Amino acid sequence: MAGLVAAAGFATSGPVVKPLLAAGWSPGGAVLVRLAIGTALLAGPALWSLRGRYGVLRDEWRFLLAFGTIAVAGGSALYYLAVDRLPVAVALLVEYSAPLMLLGWGWVRTRRTPSPGVLAGAAVAMGGLVLVLDLSGSLDLDPVGLGFALAAAVGNATYFALAARPTALPPIALAGAGMAIGTLTVAALGLVRVLPVATPAVHVDVLGAHLPWVVPILVVGAVPTAFAYAVSAMSVRMLGERVASFVALAEVLFAVLLAWLLLGEAPLPVQLVGAALVVAGVALVRQGASSPGGVPGDDALMPEPAAAREASAPRAGSELDRVPV
Question: H-helix or E-strand containing 204?
């Protein structure tokens, strides 16, 4: 359930920010302000979740640096750059090849073949995603845009892999610290003009209302950023990187519905068929992963740190057992 809630939150990003981009905001500007608002909203809850154990941040600085720069800043900025050069449907489809990347990486790393249920679910979900995104017809695709989208998929896969890594950091502290690092990364790229940042004071039209720019950007900073990242970090810990990444495909379904409601982009019948296939595929992956040997290599990409082992190990004399989720 947490994974679906996070997917619904993430799905608000595109439909809400699209009017801002059309009105003159740059992708870099939208990402920077979005992450800055998310950082401000998560700062208090993240510090509270640590309860004075701030040394964990120092111990995990390499991990947090990778998470903030690659998974948060890289994934977000590269996706917006891809959308700037490609149809949104194509950029989304390439970015959401991340679950297949994770399956393939686990397969290569462990040399264990996923169960037939997982492989079937992956095929059905990705096939349904193609129908949801309606890639029919001839498309003149920008190779640079495709490169950005593929890099965004790597950032997306990295997010799920790192968020699932055993760590003493509470999920909300991981999300908050990663977002703060992501904000600084995007700001630095903007200062050296690698990533142009433009945030003009404009008005946008949403559901017939003429709203100032601050309304949509506050929504984007709160819902798909602060809220969705925090819930998603908890979901990935519970489900594991590969299962969580397939559950996250539901974001596309929610985005189609929101685009219909907010932007008047009604889904086609073929997209409704695709939505049903995505749901069925996710169910197959979840069922296959719960079977013995269902998803190989769903452990962390890096060894479990000593701080995490000490935090998770039962104390002497304790009768608590570790219960797998």
Answer: strand 203-206
